[in-house]
Fold:
Amino acid sequence: MKKLLMVSLILVLLITACSSIQIPASIKNANQNGYAPRSTATAYAASNSTGKAYINDEYGLSISIPNGFTATDAPADGGYFQDYTMGDNEGFGYLTPTLFTAGDSLETVGKQVIETQATGLEKIKLLQDKAVTLSDGSQAWYTQLTGYYTSWDEDMEIRLTTVINSGRAITLVLYSNPENFAYWDRESNSIRDSIVLSPPRVNGLPRSQVLMLSGGESSNPREYDPATTHGSGDYLIFEGLVTFNPKLEIVPALAAGWDVSEDGTVYTFFLQPNAIFHNGKPFTAADVVYSWQRASHPETRSDTVMTYLSDIVGVKEMVEGNADSISGLKVIDDHTLEVTIDAPKPYFLYKLIYPTASIVDRDNVESGSEWYRTPNGTGPYILTRWESMVSMVYERFEDYHGDKPSIPMVVYNLYSGDSFRLYEEGSIDIVDVYDYNVERVSDPSDPLNKELLTGVSLCTSYVQFDVTKAPFDDVKVRQAFTHAFDKTKYLDVVLMNTDVEAKGIYPPALPGFSQELEGLDYDPDRARQLIAESKYASVEAFPEIVISTAGYGSYADSLVSALSEMWQKNLGISVTVRNLDPNTFLEQSSQQDYGQVTTTGWCADYPDPENFADVLFHTDAQMNKGNYTNPVLDRILELARVEPDVAKRIDLYQQAEKIIVEEAPVLFLYHYGDFQLVKPYIKGYILSPVSTYPQIRYLSIDQSYWE
Structure:
């Protein structure tokens, strides 16, 4: 039994030290069933290969399995490729991706593998530690070592073979006791020498022509419909009349150009004559009318259409069910569309970039409830494969009407594990860096630092109060709750100062941002005084305070926990957390039915203060989820909409921000810091401050990196 426990612990130590990969199933089950590496009595001479081979096209690697070895493929989210058992549980092993930084030598990577794999061993002896040539002529770093685990009075031998292929490292790990390795020496050398490297390929294309990304998958079909999505939309598939270039200038997409009337209220769009849908169907002005009227139809239940299309005459009437069509749309001919808006507005074209204004194919949409799984757009890429919970594959649309993107294929791996580790392994090309890794990659001595891009996004995080529900129907109570939360401490302790404290609504890079703005700072004494001055006079008169959030069970995220703790400490109130299924939460939020308090945020769709102040706080705004209303604010925002003078317009939005801060319909928290790692072979990538920038169409891959 002593030997069994030692081996179990060593296996856990080895695999944990190697990475965050899961313990291979056969190894885990072997230990659970009471098996330890068993000693072999006599030497065993068998053929070196069973004829079975493992092939991984994405990594450009194949390996032959020797006779006497049992190989088991890893699960999709296993974090490794295969695991191995020698004989009757006489030794174990696995084939796994290894952390690799561009520029590292084979020896450097091999030494790093030793450090992780030898964790927990003492009296380590390096029997071999050198470069070797494999049967295909490729170089590998081979290490053979023994070590002594004092706690269990047991020797262990480990054999490591590491190869690098096209910027990615893979390691074959074998381990058992020295006695068993003496028996399995021939087979162990055979599997090592059988490694063959080739140019990596993904879905039939060279890896150098594929952009690899990591992503998730929503169970809510509305998130895949441009008319109802709350995300950036699938801009690979769908597009609108206009889009952004890398300088965030408005440029043609499905519109080849446009004219604007002298009074600024009539836009005549001249559509791309050669634009077609992915199935070859010609694109016409009728498709624009259908798409926008579909988004505006009450049955679509879009909670974004009023935000982005309501400037068009007749949209409001159709949304409210008082019209069957949008009166402000007029088809002149197949490639000319006239759009009339209710007043001259300098930001109108910006709004047409949002997914709500994207063009869909009527036949596609009406083909069935799951039309979004085989979307027929006009964009630069076609969705050619969607394997739920595994991957989404996009291929370049060769008949695209505009400049074709440089990258032939884009693959999103869905729920494929820790994205940061996947980036380190070379499995994905771009990754967001979250709080817990920011300090590491910000260190100039860290190899990843040279791949780091940093900035502050055009996003604001805040706590939303429903001002129609007690006790937040009293401005003094809202001010009190704001003064009772220490944002500085939260940013320091929880977010590790990766974000920027928000005093108001506008992020630092947005026109209208003012450093002179005075927010409602942390002041517990003032908070308690405001409660006493409110119509409730005491927290004892409050109803139950409930924070609604997207989550499961009794779990409270760090922000909700911090809010609850500080409000309890400074105001003496208890807060109940109501977790809702994410889809339920999204649905209730869109109907302004989330309860008294929720945590949320807003990211710019275009670089204009109207996209914050007006969209979120005007009485009639569809995104005004807190039901806040102020006639003075409304009037200022309405004047700003049509003000042609830039300086006067900015001044109006700054006046609006002061009112919003003072009335505290929300508790402003922070502006998101933006930290991303981008592989050096990805060219053209920018940290875009807006969510609607079609990044991928402007990227390219440096082919020389893969040569």
Observations:
- The two ends are 52 Å apart (CA to CA).
- The chain has a mean pLDDT of 88.
